[in-house]
Queue: 3 jobs
Job 1
Amino acid sequence: MEETSREAVATAVQRVAGMLQRSDQLDKVEQYRRREARKKASVEARLKAAIQSQLDGVRTGLTQLHTALLDVKDIQSSLANVSKDWRQSINTIENLKDVKDAVVQHSQLAAAVENLKNIFSVPEIVLETQQLTEQGELLQAHRKLMELECSRDDLMYEQYRMDSKNTSDMNLISIYFEDVQRLSDELAKQLWMVLQRSMVTVRRDPTMLVSVVRIIEREEKLDRRMVDRKKQTGFIPPGRPKHWKDKMFQVLEGTVSTRIEGTQAVTREADKMWLVRLLEITRKYVLDDLIVVKNLMVQCFPPHYNTFNRFFSLYHNAVSTRVKELAWEDLEANEIVSLLTWVLNTYKSVEMMGHPDLCSEFDINQLEPLLPQEVVDNLLSKYVKTFTSNITGWLRKALETDKKDWLKETEPEADQDGYYQTTLPAIVFQMFEQNLQVAAQIDGDFKEQVLKLCLKQMNSFLMRYREEVVVYKEEHLRDRQLPQCYIQYMIAIVNNCQTFKESINSLKRKYSQALDPFDSDAAIERTLGEVVKEGCQFLLDEVFLDLESHLNELLTRKWLAGSHAVDTICVTVEDYFNDFNKVKKPFNQDMTNEALRRVVVEYLKAVMQKRITFKNADERKEGAERMIKEAEQFKFLFKKLAAGEDTDRLCGSITAIAEVFKLTDPTLLFLEVTTLVSKYPDIREDHIQALLAVRGDASREMRQMIIGTLSENKVSYSGTTQPIFKDITVPTITTTMTSMTSMATAKLLK
């Protein structure tokens, strides 16, 4: 207490010190004193009120405890009196057992009297219930059935209570009410029939469906009541619980399954499009039925049934089961695509489960996939295998058809620009296009896979195409009169390669998002290049086969005497190139340049073969002037045919050699040869020797001096231009004799 007083004084001192920190605050001392006095009086009043309240509570509590003590004593006294009276009345209760039995018997007799009317009227009620059931008055029939079941169950229960071991009486009751179970079964059949036709019933007579649901709900309540009574008494009537609600859902599930399974109207034998028709019918049925469920059937069932979601799941499961069955059938490639497109795209689209009328009721993203990924992968693998086999056969058949066209006596068709072509590229890429369009409907990754497969097959096809072109050329060489349009179809083959290339690039742009090149791109490019190169070579070979005899006349005595071989060569080349105008660019340009080069090389070969040796200066001059004139003819012709910039250089090689022949002063021969070598550094020593041999006036010493000097001051070939003399061989004496013998033999045979 003293410590509390000290703390109070210390606190008061601090407060006073806080109030009187400045001299001007001394004038307010009286004001501070009155304020503190009011506070003290307020605190004391609150303390007194609190203490008084606590004292009042304690007083009330003591009063209640005293009252409770008195009540406990009264109860204790009453219990003692009750216990005394109970002990005294035990004998009296035992004497009332007969009364108790009489009461029980009276209760049973009262129940029997109460049900007597129903018992005697059972046959009549059974007949009436039968008629109501047959007439479709299901609610009335069920009410009568409930009356019968109630009478039977009450009698059985009373018998069970009286003597649960008396089975004979139980059997007697069961036999008397045996028609009740039959009526229950017949009514159930009627209910299941209505449920099986629920989609039709809900449109025509929804009240019938509502009645069925009400009956089932009543039976569910009775089932629960009987189960609860069994827990209490151990008795349950026969046929309970009926579980009609569970049976209802089973019937609805079976109805949905039957609805989906019954959509197949035709088979593959009757209609190739059987699967497309089946899937479309299924789509229409499911969509129409679910819209009916949403708009009509939901109103016929209690809300807690969650009717729409239940039916949505039933249809999904039924469709999934049916689709799995279809997936295990031996489907063709187009059928696999139809099935997967429907499963992966159509099913969740706005055309079916994603329809606007259904989306508001159910989230389709919560649906399980119709087909497991493993099954989808197996179908895709099967499709790829079948597609590979089919496309190989299609390409083979297309090539065989194109080969037959090569033998026709009519020219191939021309495109809008006038270039020859066959139908092969269009047929091939139409097949690719169709299959890629189908693959695109399934999945983007699968589309890329099919595109890669198409390109791989394309490469194999082009290799076979190349082989067939070679065979076509070889068969033509056996009889050059056949086929009649060999040139035109070989041109079409070359043009086809360009079309193939353009179509491949078009397919990749349209169906591929990949930035990196495909594995088969390089092989396809290489094979196409080889086919084009060989095709152009075969065309030029055809030209030079016709020119062979005229090329053999060059630089011979007949040529020097005034042969028209070069005129014929130019006319023939121009005539052929009128046909070669049907070759697409840039191949026609390449062929023109190659033809010029081959003509010049053949001309130079004629010089190097030393078919003639000039006897005097006049022959050399005449031969040189003729060579210069013919070089100009070649230049004019090939410029007319739009040859490349190398025309002057190639034709100039003939002119340069002519200048060597034309030279009249032998002492200047070295200078002229040096000029020739500087222009064409790929010319070799054996070429110079052949030229000097054809000239005919160069002594052995002069030839050795020219060759030796050129060897010492050999000009290196830079390789910036394509060599001319590199592949020209100079025949030896033996080769020359053999060639002359062959030419003589050929003339004799002619």
Note: Residues 56 and 85 are 44 Å apart (CA to CA).
Job 2
Amino acid sequence: MKLTCLSKGDGFHYPPCHMLNLCGFRILIDCPLDLLAITIFSPFPYDVRFEASEYPSDVPLDAQSPTQKKQKLERQMTPDDLVCAEPWYKTVKALHLWEASLIDIVLISNPMGLLGLPLLTQNPRFCAKIYMTEATAKIGQLMMEDLVSMHMEFRRFYGPDDSSFPWWTKNLDGEEVPALLKKVVFGESGDDLGSWIRLYSLDDIKSCMKKVQAVKFAEEVCYNGTLIINALSSGLEIGACNWLINGPNGSLSYVSDSIFVSPHAKNFDFHRLKGTDVMIYSDFSCLQTAEVTENGCNSPDQDNNSTISDKNDENLAASLLDTEESLEELEKLAFVCSCAAESADAGGSTLITITRIGIVLQLLELMSNSLESSSLKVPIFVISSVAEELLGYTNTIPEWLCEQRQEKLISGEPSFGHFKFIKDKKIHLFPAIHSPNLITSWQEPCIVFAPHWSLRLGPSVQLLQRWRGDPKSLLVLEAGISSGLGLLPFRPIAMRILQCSFLSGIRLQKLPTLLSVLQPKIVLVPDAFNGRINHTEMKPIPMLTYSENKTLRVPRTADNPDVEIMAELASKLSWRILRQGENFGLARLKGELLMEGGKHRLVSGLEQEASSGKATGLRHWGSVAPETLLDSLVKMGITGSIEHSTGGNGSEDKCVIHITNPSSGFIETSDIGTAIITDDKNVASQIFQAIDGILDGI
């Protein structure tokens, strides 16, 4: 097995991408877009920009990182540094270097990992099988269609541009260009230029989705009779999954960003990942947070590692399912709601650019309940070309929801609270900011959910332009986007800014406990985890590290694959216990070895062979010691003498046993075999029996 990490990603919106070579099949796991890279583009043309070079950054200098301070000393970026052109989109760096026709399988773990797939499937040589859950397929398709819809606004600004090369990069290679801009465009090593590509069309999306095999909840799919593939809930989002692959050479689990207890999606189903031969750990989310220090984990639960080896599996598993993380997330959401209420009470509006579907669903529910219980009469607008279809879809997939949401559906209630508030006209859905119904319904202050989180696409751009000078208004950003670069085109900005970081994976301090519960034979982790995992008290598990754009060869955990034999067939086999191996036996039959359902199966022609009445000769292996053979012959009443002959180099070449009684003959032994020569069939038969008693054979 070989693993190549094509990209370690950059948080929830840009998941990792891997290429796996398993059982001779090449498997691509996730195909995302780096949407953070489009922040280098200006959201509007030169003639509508703001004069902002004299304004300071909206981030205080003492709150900036050393890298930001260095950039500030070099030259502060201005809106004029941004690219004024129709955006191109950045794919996984090394993916365009792989031959599309050599990819056999594509596995998509969550909707964000689907966004770059149409760029791959539009290659005429692409012929791989694509697997993802039904929910991921539907939500991901809606997200791609919304992305294309928002992108069309740029074409209205700049006009169609059908060039095959990103011409704007020619202006970004000079010494006066800010280092941050160069890094995004060309990459740290300067070889990212080939990753930029034009966005796909709606037709490309439709063509891509026709090639997808959507996997139902708990469904097993078989690829080529060799690999059995299971999608197991990861808890990150509705329909997001981890992968379990069983094949003839063992089992493999792929663990992406996961949440043990989710308030909206089905919980992380880690129990079914127990005991796999290889586990690929691909949750990089903890590297985007401040939960680790130079010396390792920095959390209140760090001391729990010291007792891992003392707990049984049930207690360890129970410790992973505590609700503390869920309560923390709920507190964050409640804080966002309180800040929005404060702004509304002061006469200001709130713009929420968060697009994580699970977070949006919970915020809509909490905000509506909060406003209903207060005296504030503030409308909530959701502006997106796919808002109505996406929100409606969440009530049709109970199998991918958490237990509490499932119970609501069973009792006849909607799974999420937004259905009630939409019906009561407290939440208003509109496909675009210029929708006639929105214009007639508009009132301020209001709370608006609008894409895109990058602040370069969609209704959020126009609304941020409208409210940027209002100190009573609130902008809610998602963690991952740099507020400096993201807000650069809108400076000066007087709005209050709230940047939220929500749980998007497994916290690093829980990884030792998870590994102790799952007990894989080998675990593969990113090299960035070196020195950050406490190994001292966790159960011993071989651990290999992988690096970006490097191939890691994984040793086999078992030398011999298992073979399934029917009980009826096994009972008919004549087993011969070998002398040279303890508890080791062989049986001989005529048949065929097949590959079915990811397992070797033995289909035999034993009955046909037995009915033919033909005896099958024994096959022996090994060398015969002349002295041992002669002793056995003497016990049978056969006498003889041993003659040794040497070769030209002085070493023993062969040995001959001359038979003198009861009849003449000789036995010649050498490294290449043993020959019996005699005219007496009885003597020949006795000699064969003696050899059979010495050597192993079937």
Note: Residues 134-158 form the longest helix (25 residues).
Job 3
Amino acid sequence: MKIRGTSTPPRAVNRQTNEALEGESEFIIKIHDINDNEPRFTRDPYIAHVPEMSDIGTSVIQVTAIDADDATYGNSAKVVYSILQGQPYFSVDPETGLIKTALSGMDREVKEKYLVVIQAKDMAGQMGGLSGTATVSITLADVNDNPPRFTKTLYEFRVPESRELGSSVGAIRAMDADIGQNAEMDYRIIGSDGPGMFDIISNRSTQEGVIVLRKPLDFEKKRQYSLRVQVENVHINPRSYKMGPFRDEASVRITVEDVDEPPAFERPSYVMEVREDADRNVIIGTVSASDPDDKRSLVRYTIDRRTDMDRLFDIHAGNGSVYVLRDLDREENAWHNISVIASEFGNRVPVYIRVLDVNDNAPTFATNYEAFVCENAKANQRIQTVSATDPDEPIGGHRFIFSLAPEAAGKANFSVRDNKDNTAWILTRRSSYSSLQRSVYHVPVVISDGELPALSSTNTLTIRVCTCDREGNMKLCNPEALTAKAGLSTGALVAILLCVMILLMIVVLFAALRRQRKKEPLIISKEDVRDNVVSYNDEGGGEEDTQAFDIGTLRNPEAIEDSKQRRDIVPETFYPQVRRPVLPPSRDNNGDVRVFITQKLQDNDSDPTAPPYDSLATYAYEGNGSVAESLSSLESVTTEGDQDYNYLSEWGPRFKKLADMYGGDDSDS
């Protein structure tokens, strides 16, 4: 019997006949698992953290291993956990794989990292079971369990008394074994024999306490300071309170060093007063300075002349007394600000000198008044309101008094009424003024300032008589009044007249220059020469044509005069012409050349058409007595008829023109 692995249910058949011995049957086959897979952890390695100083049994991390065997059949998939490495610090739960602390008081500052090896074994941990391992890295997290501690109990610093406020005096630092925010510290001063002199600032980046200066130091007053400084953690773990206070204290000693200081004035500034009529060398005040150093050096006073350019004041070098050096004028400058220097090192103090007013200026008109009165004015009619000004400044203010000058009171045409408010009215004393009889009136007005001693001045008010309409509006005034109304002063008129005179002088000078005639030159300009050159296209007559061009055409035709003498030779009218002697022949048989040159020189000297300047004349003279006789056509024959030019026609087309002119019969020529 055999069982076939087909899709039909198995059955028993005869091998020989292949016939079924029985009906079809159904079989169930079950495969039993064996322990052939070891447990495997879900991660490897594991990373975990636990705070330092944790209690025993504090959970750290849970590890998990998985076995692929059948958990329902036997113990092949039953896993048990155990710790292979990491005792006695940690333990693991055999069933859950939870790792816990097994030792109390684990200190991060002693040991920070731990490596734990966990084993997972199947078969419930029995002999013959398969196992797998995993590594767990456990780090102790820091807690604030260490208080800060100063490295020294006493810190000493030295600082000069000239140290600026806010600058650093020194830095102190406490040590803390913790890290991060658990090591942050705060510094503060808990005691000092100089309250408010110093302060301490906590530097978070360096965890230092920086001592800074808050008040000026003075070696002469106090030479040493003692401070008590405390440091404390910022973040404190409540569980660490039982370990004691998380703070520490130290002492700081600061020694002040002496610096040679400039003299110090008793006051930051001085204000002095002096009357403007004070005499010279009068003392107006005193400044005082002293040397703050122990040696108490003498102080010398001077005035910074850059603040007193006019040298109005001076100071006694020994006692600091300021006195007047020149006359003062309050109206010109009421305040003087000078600087007094106290040496050793040029320390200075401002001195403000106020010049007190003295009644030394008389009041005057506030402006230049120009008044007019109508011809039809009535008596007691107001024609002008005047006021006054005074550069003085009395304490109670100005009080001006106006009145008519006594010399004009008897025959006055106008009156002055004081309004008691520093103004006055000018009134007419009669009616009917005539500009034909008198066009201008001058009214003297006396103005007094009412001070003690009183000063007064006489001011003249000019009143012009004008024609007005019924409403009193001016219609016509005399010429002087009109000029004044137009705003043309005497100075303006003078300036206008001066400008007119200068303009006339320029015009006259220009006309004179235009009338001035220049001497006409022999040749007026280059254009004259160009315009008087005769241009023609006649062909020359050869070497015998010596009269083809006259150089006289180059001269200015207007300047040619027959009777005008040459400038380069002596005129024959004053001196007889001297014939140059004929030189005798020389030994070199060139006498005929000398005679020829002498003759040409005399011809040029007597030629009136020669140019009025030195010139070079070149001649081609062949001489006499040549064996070959002359080769030139000049003077070879006496007449043109003796010369035969027929040979020119044989020279080709280039000489055809000459052959036509000179060759042929006499009738042709």
Note: The mean pLDDT is 80.
